[in-house]
């Protein structure tokens, strides 16, 4: 699957459904029939929407953990807490379960943000706070994270 592109704003209806924006739905067209996994983010107060193939890749990695190590079992339990299999219906809507809505503090306004091969689902106000440059200096963050990437074929050095 190609990397997903874009950040989209939408609204959640009274039943907890959000209408998948057309450009994002188009990018996910090849995997719509397989379904998705929706889970709590590890690091942020948002949700992560995994296409089923991406979820299966993640589970293959997690399955390699030695389950006779307590930390590994604790991690697996916490990582999979609240995980739900979800589908996008014929009208292009995704139902966000109430427990996950509560975790991500989702109100009416939502941001769907592509994160390589998954989609993050944020309450709009929390998303704006998370990307606020006054809290984290993005230039310093980029340098710290990307310092060891050396891919001259793609203009990164």
Could you tell me how far the N terminus lies from the C terminus, measured between alpha carbons in angstroms? 25 Å
Mean pLDDT: 90
The amount of beta strand, in percent, is: 15-25%
General form: globular
Strand order of the largest sheet: 1-7-8-4-3-5
Structure description:
The chain has 157 residues and is an alpha+beta fold. The chain is 31% helix and 24% strand. The longest helix has 11 residues.
Outline of this structure?
The protein is of the alpha+beta class. The protein is 31% helix and 24% strand. It has a six-stranded antiparallel beta sheet with strand order 1-7-8-4-3-5.
Highlighted features:
6-stranded antiparallel sheet, alpha+beta, globular, 6 helices, two-stranded antiparallel sheet, 157 residues
Q: What is the topology?
A:
Layout: E1 7-11, E2 17-19, H1 22-27, E3 36-40, E4 47-51, H2 52-62, H3 70-79, E5 84-86, E6 93-95, H4 98-103, E7 109-115, E8 118-123, H5 124-130, H6 138-146
Antiparallel strand pairs: 1-7, 2-6, 3-4, 3-5, 4-8, 7-8
